[in-house]
TrEMBL record, chains A, B, C, D:
Name of the protein described by the UniProt record: Gfo/Idh/MocA family oxidoreductase
GO molecular function: nucleotide binding
Domain spans labelled GFO/IDH/MocA-like oxidoreductase: 135-244
Domain Gfo/Idh/MocA-like oxidoreductase N-terminal: residue ranges: 8-126
Record's signal peptide: none
Length: 359, 359, 359, 359
């Protein structure tokens, strides 16, 4: 990367849980100049600004008025994302938004449209798409190492913070959904979504959630998210026609394993219409080697802020652009509908993916 | 146990995968005299008979005609259970049936009714209900150690044999469902059942399956069964209002763990109608000790055949009686319906549990 | 294998802990005809004979007098091995002996000599050398996959039975030592042996033991054996100049892992005499992939009795012949000496390995 | 803690690997005012000073001349500790030293004596003694939960940096030894020490090391340290007469487990002189519950710098004072001697523990 390029100026809005991580990475980036921290809670903003050498702003309006910036990064509650983003886009700023992009597809769509109309970058901080493991998984799928994707099972459970505003689907599933959008050959494009949730504590929102996505060609993706689990599990299995992959994010010694193990079904022309007994005879099992690729070590958020800068400079959509974020929102909304309809399978409206083209 | 009691005579029908386990345990039991092995495949029957000191019969009719027996144990394909059981009950024999009891609720109901009318024992071989771990789990729930059951998550995945006749739900989920029936305070009595399955290999039946059960009082039980997983997992989490339990059946050093860890929600009268922010403030987290009870070691099938004998002698329903088996079948059938209706939640007809009273 | 070859006749001496395993495998073998079980405890002998279709003998003398046998298998306490084996060899029988071969090198040497003089097979039941994992490890080392062996660390700890006659070294370390003898390019030929033991319960013998072996070329092998550990561990690490191998015998899903990971030291001529700082600069780290080879599944004891038969028929030393067993005894004796001399390193007398040549 | 107490002023000497951790914790501490960073490498010092708001000094002499400080913290190579510490003590400063305290017992003794004579605090940064796990282990031993300590086995292996100046014993074993000194009822007071090391890479120093300590009353402590292991293990087992404890530092979900499991030996007066067979009959096994205490979460280094301040203010020895550090050095030196004498057991001179009394 050429160092003589001017650094881009960015402000971080929201100094709560996630904002400090963004601020730290912008501050450490060769691409970025962290100009300001903006938070209604002045003390919180001040503390973060002190640690990162940035100025403090109390409101987004003041921020946009007073600071010469290229971009803002939004790390506020999801229901406030759209308003802040729209203000920033109107002011001609590029926008990075913490996941989920917005709290409705409709709001997200407005954001995407506004960015598109002004030729600005709108990017979601789908952090996992910048981890060494997920990048490797995408590569393995692209190279055909797994064959066709047959099923996906993702478990993300923990004794987590019960959020005041969102349920466990909106809090945790964006991780799984954005990963699927990134690694699946066709992105996140389920034919249908079913959801089941439980609120056994009476907290007013689902704390335990299950999400089923019917993918094209009969494949099924399933996601289990849970705030109440005493054990922490973060595992993703991708079953392929050639090999099966396990990503165990809590096993630093072997995060990604590829199993040359599986069930094969020989389907031959002359077998059609045959009895199940003979069909069974055509099933065979592979019990081959296991292989765990070495993964490079780097901080995903560092890569993420670099991608934000690169997409601005190169005037191209970011890896996790608004379109990707909309596809995640569309699934979350379909899940919400399924929850209220006895887990009935819901179709997913294509959230106009063609929109995300930077002029 | 009094040794002078006459041994009961039993024959095992079916010498395939499971029959040999039953035969071995009957042969080793002080309660039972294994009289005969019956299988259409004479060679298979002969081999098993030789190992267990039993005679051989080619058909159930011949068996019932020629042998003085008190009971038969059926370990044939599920679709044949009902006919064999009905013949044996008609002949006045007590009957033990490998899970699932039958391939439809209707067939199971006929079996239960026939046994009831003749005052005979009909028992399902729900083997897991005789394991040290499950017996301990039931005890912990009964003693209130877990508090109210808030959610259940069961995973039973493996590179398993794709069965020629049944899908993964009928093959594996009876384990999970019979365990739930045994340990839950009210047995297996879900308000609704949703199911999602995938057959990514085109084998003609689901190889990957997810089952959601809405339990009374807002609790949710979820079961993941899978024949295609490269890794083997058998884990059951039972989240309670006081503590949470994890049964990891593949960790012989710590099968059952009880976590004094969880989320508490203080619901106070004056909080009603309050803002979510104040509600959130009432959530607290316990991060207490973990405790793994020592488990005795014994062979579950030995306990199971002993229970069969005891229920016959004491003229009382067995631990895993026909009623328990019917409740499992009712859920499997509801799941089947849900599969064909886009995962829509299905209600479960109470399968006449009052029937199972031995005259 | 040619089935028309006459089956060899064998008797098992000792029906305690290990004898039944040998008897079961001889009985199931196409190579062997299990003729008799011999044990002073008639009831124990009878029970085993009944299960395996063999006759019963009360003493070795009667056995050798009355039975037409080709070979005996000895599974009695170690201190009795030599007498029984010498009697059998004198009677012209081939001999298989449970580990350890004898309770002294001297006794073992007599056995080896007697077998050699009469052209009979003397073989030790070093069972682990017939497991899929150990066979694979030997193959990997032979093929140069690991490079030169730099260090070996073996841990075999458990809550085990405190033996009445032998300490933890003689009980457990023969496993580790026989494995090393089998897989190391030069066999078990340490330059020196140090041992440290503890008897914290005052049982009269070491219950916790550590064994250090200095191997040729500066390599070190270390063995930890322990009867008192609450956790069960069976792990062997073999560090090589190219790759490092981990055998975790209690992880059925990934028993053998090969790590392309390690420390490299560039030693260049012009570096000699250089400062440690520059030396350090020449150290580099490889963080490559991990690979877990698929292992076949078979019963090691089945392979072991097949090897016994093959070595008799082919008149060649068995894989785990008397010479291998003597090398194990020589290390155990050196360890015993080290224990009584403040862990001082002891040299190991070569136990005449050239002896074991079948005429 | 009273906030009106004057903050103590400290400088950190050494801005390499460990210094930044110390600096960060001093900077964040309410007890300390981090005044300066001192390193020969000005750039390194500057970078650390910038991050922590401290000034920069190029040499210790300049530091002591120009800065008003109460204490210094030394994080330089071990061979330089003594000179820097002596200079600081002469200048009347309290001293904290990264482990190991010095590179010889003799040097350490001089430091302890100098501190004592001037009534200054000399403290070793034995970080592990401030971790929640080790504090809990000490508490469990003190409360008698484990009974008498029968054996200790510690494994600390990793693919670690081969150090240019010290071998693996001096690099890693101070962790294990300082933990033992802290948790054992009588501190680290072995009767003898044996060591075995290997340098399979020809790096000029041991990269694989085993250390055996004979503790009073027949107990044995063993330490395995290794820079070349492809897998990372940090496990400590403490076998007690009542229970056994396992600390698995890499299992965040269950770091400390207490097993009510073990071997009991009934030693009765009338048993003395009895045969081993009857002795064996008196051995019994407990297979009780496992218990994993919840551990608080805090940063150990924060506690450590707080203890440094408290010991200065209260004019009392620190938890990990010079005496503790000397006991660690004495074992390391005995190990060095054992290495050069064929692993022969070496006695450990008591390193004048009575010295460490603050006037």
């Amino acid at each position: 990367m050429l160092r003589h390029v001017r650094k881009l100026k960015v402000a971080v809005v929201g100094a709560g849980y996630w904002g400090p991580n963004l601020a730290r990475n912008f501050a450490a980036s060769p691409d970025w100049d962290l100009v300001a921290i903006c938070d209604r809670d002045d003390e919180r903003a001040r503390a973060l600004a002190d640690r990162t050498g940035a100025a403090v702003e109390h409101s987004v309006d003041e921020l946009l008025d007073r600071r010469q910036i290229d971009a803002i990064a939004i790390a506020t509650p999801a229901r406030t994302h759209a308003d802040i983003a729209m203000a920033a886009l109107s002011a001609g700023k590029h926008v990075l938004v913490e996941k989920p992009l917005a709290d409705t597809v409709e709001a997200g769509r407005r954001m995407v449209r506004a960015a598109q109309q002004r030729g600005l970058i709108l990017m979601a901080d789908h952090t996992y798409c910048y981890t060494p493991a997920v990048v490797k998984i995408k590569e393995l799928i692209e190279n055909g190492e797994l064959g066709d994707v047959l099923y996906v099972d993702s478990v993300r459970i923990n004794l987590g913070l019960v959020q005041p505003d969102v349920d466990v689907f909106w809090d945790l599933a964006p991780h799984d959904l954005s990963i699927l959008d990134f690694v699946l050959p066709d992105g996140l494009a389920p034919d249908g979504v079913t959801a089941q949730g439980a609120d056994p504590l009476g907290s007013g929102r689902s704390c335990v959630g299950y999400l089923g996505l019917t993918l094209p060609a009969g494949a099924l993706a399933h996601v289990h998210v849970n705030w109440l689990s005493p054990t922490k599990i973060r595992q993703l299995v991708i079953g392929g026609s050639r090999r099966t992959l396990l990503w165990d994010d809590l096993n630093p010694q072997q995060r990604v394993s590829v199993f040359d193990r599986g069930v094969d079904l020989q389907r031959q022309a002359d077998m059609l219409g045959d009895s199940s007994r003979r069909k069974a005879a055509q099933i065979s099992y592979r019990l081959g080697d296991t292989w765990a690729p070495a993964l490079p070590e780097y901080e995903p958020l560092g890569r993420m802020v670099a991608e934000f800068a690169a997409s601005i400079r190169e005037q191209r959509p970011a890896r996790t652009d608004g379109g990707a974020a909309l596809r995640v929102l569309a699934v979350l909304e379909a899940a919400q509908r399924s929850l209220t309809q006895g887990s009935r399978c819901q179709s997913v409206t294509r959230p106009e993916p063609s929109l995300e083209v930077v002029g």
